[in-house]
Structures are given as structure tokens and as C-alpha cells.
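lol forgot to send this yesterday, sorry. C-alpha cells for the thing we talked abt
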């Protein structure tokens, strides 16, 4: 009888994980597609393509710094909303939603100013070619103007996912991409009424799509959706709730900011090898973003289910949900890894026609594909720990992986041993297998079950 109960429990966990995960996978795929469409379209600008692709990709690296702060707030949002829903305290869930949006709105102000002032100087520091600096700077500055709307869309979707609604963010992602594609086609290449704007046109289209998505989400939340409702009445800033969100989220913020700094340092090593290899690197990172989507989906599912089960005082079921999410994540991402390894060349040609850029893109894509199963382990367990409010251990694991494994080994292999760009890329694989082993062992030990949030 005990065995039958355990099997039934595992089956419930598996079903719940997949039901929550698949819409998140598609929604995150669509979110990534927004900037990827920019890269693909500017890759069709003829002789300008290598510089344009490098500029949009490099510019997107800096935009991800903004997302780092959004992720930090969303970590607290998902953990607290999911626990409130698990405890059937819907008033508290609504309260956390409102305070998250307020906190996001406040944080968007300095980020907007930072992007407007430091866009070109940041790119220039890394030694990019002048045309890459100019185009990338314009891309960053335009998108910086809509950071507020990015925050609203990101955090509102996070709250819905914490409440168990992963479908609404999916449809919002469809809307954002349709708007982005429709505007990009006209602004990047021009038409009878609009001049050809190139990279700035891509940034304008992406920015408008973020605004449309945020407005649509606010309308949904004001009406009330999946046990969550945004109330305009009542106080707007409650420091106790803000502190709780921040207490969970600050390690995620620090993790993401320091990781993005590390990614920029890593890209700085790539810049040394010229614009064509930088363009190839950025194409590889776009493929990486798509390959990571299942992992993100299972991470969000694990976060919501672990938080809800802990809120319902069922830690054993919380642990089962975490392991089930990891199994699904590894299985799906291993299939993806095999697919992109085998199809690396046609995938690269879908972005750009330049043969040199395509050749190096294929090399990076195949090296990266080897790391993807480990990424599946790390993301799922990382999400499970965040659902428990344990954001500090993932912080230390990620930072040690980047600063003690990837960056030193890239410098050693790429420059000291003279392996060139391949030596810069190989440590990515080593780092992710290190991260997955460390975080899985921590989850197995179970100390996260006793954390209070």
C-alpha cells in the first residue's frame, strides 16, 4: 500500500510539473524570440550584417543587466505568491502582487537613466569596433526607455505563475512577438512610408511590443485572473512586504548582476578576436537562449510547486516535485542538445549568410550543446530551491562556477595555452557540469525544507 501511495504521489508530481512547465517553456521561448527576431532581421542587412548582428547581440547582453534586477524581484514574488496560494490566503497573494509591481516601477527609474547615459561608453570599454559601439549604443538607449513596462510585464507574469497560471503569460508572449515582428519588418527594412532604420528600427519595434504586452497584462490583472487581482485601492507601499520580497530576491539580484558582469567579461575575451567571431558568438548565445527555455520552464514549475507544497506544509511532496522537474528537464534538454549539435550549420545560416560567421557559429553551437543536459539539472534544482526561499546557495554556486571555473579557464585555455577562441568557449561546458553536481547535492541534503520566508 505504501508503494502504491508513493507511485501515485510521484504521478501527481509529474503531471503537475509538466502542466505548469510547458506553457512557461513556450512563453519564455516567445520572450527570447523577441530579441532573436531582431538579430535575424538585421542579419539580412547585406554588408552591414556582421556589425549589425554583433551590435544587437552585444547590446542585448547589457539589456540582460536590467533583467537581472527583474529576476531578483520575481524570485521573491513567485516564492511568496505561491506560498500564499498554497495556504489559501488569496488576499496575501494579491498584496504581494501589488507590492512587487510598485517595487519594480521604482527600480525601473535608475535603470532607465543608466542605459541612456552609459550605453555607448560601456560598449566602447570592451574594445568593440566603432560601428558596433554606435549601433549597439542606439539599441540599448531606445530599449532603456521602456524598462518600466518590461518590469510590469515580467513581474505580473511571475505572480501569475506563482499562482499556478502559466497559460496567460504564454498568450501575452504571442501578442508581444506579433507586434514586434510586424513593426520590425517595416522599420528595419523600410517601406513606402518609413525610411530604412536598421538596428534602431529593431529597437523601436521591440520597445513598442514590450509596452503593448505590459498594458495588456495590467488590464488582465485589474480584472482578476487565476485567483489573483490587482487592487488600486489601499496603500501603495507597505515596507514589510517589500522587505520580504527583497529578502528573498536580493541574492538572486546579486547573482544575476554578477553573472551578467562575468558574461560581459567573457564576451570581452571574445571581442579580441574581431567582429566576425563576436557576431558568431552572439548567434550562438541566441541559440543558447532557445535551448535553455525548457530548463526555465521546469524551473518555474519547480518554484511554484515547491512553494505551494511548503505553504501547505507538505515538504515531502515539495521534494518530489523538485526531482520530477529535474528528470523532465534533463530528458527534454538532452534531446534539444542532440538536435542543435546535428543541425548547427543550417541553424547558423538561418541567422546570417556570411560564411566565416556561419563557420564559427557552428563551432560555438556544438561546444555549447555538450553542456545542455547539465544546464537542465541546474535550472530545475535552482528553481526548486527558489520556491523554498533558498536563493543564497544558488547564488554561491553560480558565482563560483563563473568566477572560479569559466573565466579563469577561458583565460588559461584561450590566451596562456594559445587555443584561441575555442579555448574561450570550452570552459562553459566544464562550468555547467560543476554547477549541476554542486546544487543537486545541496538539494538532496534537504536543509531547504526548514527555511522560513
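and heres what i got for the seq, position by position
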Amino acid at each position: 500500500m505504501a508503494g502504491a501511495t508513493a507511485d501515485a504521489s510521484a504521478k501527481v508530481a509529474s503531471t503537475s510539473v509538466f502542466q505548469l512547465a510547458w506553457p512557461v517553456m513556450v512563453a519564455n521561448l516567445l520572450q527570447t524570440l523577441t530579441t532573436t527576431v531582431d538579430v535575424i532581421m538585421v542579419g539580412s542587412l547585406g554588408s552591414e550584417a556582421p556589425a549589425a548582428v554583433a551590435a544587437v547581440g552585444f547590446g542585448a547582453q547589457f539589456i540582460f543587466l536590467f533583467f537581472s534586477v527583474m529576476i531578483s524581484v520575481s524570485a521573491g514574488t513567485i516564492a511568496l505568491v505561491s506560498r500564499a496560494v498554497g495556504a489559501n490566503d488569496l488576499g496575501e497573494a494579491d498584496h504581494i502582487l501589488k507590492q512587487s509591481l510598485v517595487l519594480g516601477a521604482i527600480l525601473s527609474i535608475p535603470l532607465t537613466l543608466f542605459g541612456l547615459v552609459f550605453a555607448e561608453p560601456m560598449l566602447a570599454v570592451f574594445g568593440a569596433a566603432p560601428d558596433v559601439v554606435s549601433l549597439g549604443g542606439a539599441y540599448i538607449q531606445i530599449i532603456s526607455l521602456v524598462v518600466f513596462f518590461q518590469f510590469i510585464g515580467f513581474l505580473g507574469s511571475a505572480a501569475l505563475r506563482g499562482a499556478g497560471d502559466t497559460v496567460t503569460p504564454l498568450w501575452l508572449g504571442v501578442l508581444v512577438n506579433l507586434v514586434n515582428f510586424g513593426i520590425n519588418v517595416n522599420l528595419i527594412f523600410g517601406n513606402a512610408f518609413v525610411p530604412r532604420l536598421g538596428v534602431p528600427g529593431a529597437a523601436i519595434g521591440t520597445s513598442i511590443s514590450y509596452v503593448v504586452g505590459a498594458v495588456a497584462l495590467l488590464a488582465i490583472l485589474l480584472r482578476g485572473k487565476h485567483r489573483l487581482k490587482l487592487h488600486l485601492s489601499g496603500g501603495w507601499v507597505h515596507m514589510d512586504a517589500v522587505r520580504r520580497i527583497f529578502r528573498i530576491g536580493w541574492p538572486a539580484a546579486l547573482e544575476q548582476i554578477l553573472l551578467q558582469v562575468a558574461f560581459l567579461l567573457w564576451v570581452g575575451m571574445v571581442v579580441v578576436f574581431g567582429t566576425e567571431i563576436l557576431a558568431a558568438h552572439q548567434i550562438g548565445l541566441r541559440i543558447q537562449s532557445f535551448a535553455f527555455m525548457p530548463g526555465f520552464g521546469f524551473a518555474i514549475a519547480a518554484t511554484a510547486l515547491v512553494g505551494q507544497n511548503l505553504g501547505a506544509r507538505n515538504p515531502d511532496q515539495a521534494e518530489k516535485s523538485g526531482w520530477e522537474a529535474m528528470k523532465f528537464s534533463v530528458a527534454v534538454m538532452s534531446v534539444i542538445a542532440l538536435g542543435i549539435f546535428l543541425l548547427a550549420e543550417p541553424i547558423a545560416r538561418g541567422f546570417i549568410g556570411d560564411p566565416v560567421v556561419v563557420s564559427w557559429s557552428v563551432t560555438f553551437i556544438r561546444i555549447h550543446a555538450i553542456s545542455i543536459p547539465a544546464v537542465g539539472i541546474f535550472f530545475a534544482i535552482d528553481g526548486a530551491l527558489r520556491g523554498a526561499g533558498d536563493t543564497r546557495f544558488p547564488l554561491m554556486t553560480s558565482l563560483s562556477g563563473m568566477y572560479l571555473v569559466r573565466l579563469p579557464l577561458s583565460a588559461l585555455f584561450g590566451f596562456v595555452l594559445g587555443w584561441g577562441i575555442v579555448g574561450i568557449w570550452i570552459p562553459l561546458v566544464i562550468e555547467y557540469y560543476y554547477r549541476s553536481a554542486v546544487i543537486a547535492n545541496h538539494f538532496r541534503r534537504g536543509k531547504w525544507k526548514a527555511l522560513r520566508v
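The chain is about 85% helix and 0% strand. anyway ping me if u want another try
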